[in-house]
Amino acid sequence: MINKNYVINRSWTEINLDALANNAQQIKSLTGPTCEVMGIVKADAYGHGACEVAQVLLENGYTRLAVSLLDEAIALRNQGITAPILILSYTDPRRAEEIIRHRVTQTVYTWDLIEALETAGKRVGAYPSVHIKVDTGMSRIGFTSGFSSVAEIEKIHALKNVFIEGIFTHFSTADELDRSFFDEQAQRFIGICNELESAGIYIPIKHCCNSAALMRYPEYHLDMVRAGIVTYGILPDCCEKFAGRFQPVMSIKSNVIMVKSIPAGTSVSYGRRYIAPSERILA
To answer: Which of 73, 132, 141, 237 could serve as 175's disulfide partner, Cβ 3.0–4.6 Å?
Structure first.
């Protein structure tokens, strides 16, 4: 996508949708046939343009989208995006009815929002869909992993007007060589899922892999992976073996507004940060 007026600007950003399509296809090729791919399009798709990016991803194998805010989800709905959208973070309980009316799935980890969704669902005659966030070691939002989280999820499952579509966690060290803490987090999450199934609670979509994990640990792809920065052509650390398969989507360009020659000994910029050792060409 190129702003038609870019030639009169000093600098501009170009978004290569062909590169985006390639990256989506590459990610899809890394997953099994039954594993869904969720495209992370929060923060205007990291500045790439959420609606345009979403359309390309959905045309190239992705089945779901994720955002940070309800307003981001509503903006996508208003632009004709009908695919499932997950809000990864907090939404004020007073906006529960908006979540349901826009057919958006909400991440839950506190009872005030869960109860607000249940009440709003009864009022509008629709079942809200939620994904439960479990904190296995990131120390951000989520029910703390362990017996207490299983008990909380069992209580949510008992609600008649809330549908638990998914459960997920987020890895803090998937892009590090030492995988010991990654394995701890993974086992905590799998343990919770197993306990729930032993209690007769089957949650359809279990997901834990971010970009680094989906590339390095296919054994944890489960039902879905969340493709973030790699979608945009940025390789996480420790993923060098995939270099060449992914292409950067964004490039920032500028017009050269002046070219000048300076002799040896000429200083450049504030504080004379650079002294030319010989004749140089500056742009």
So the answer is: 237
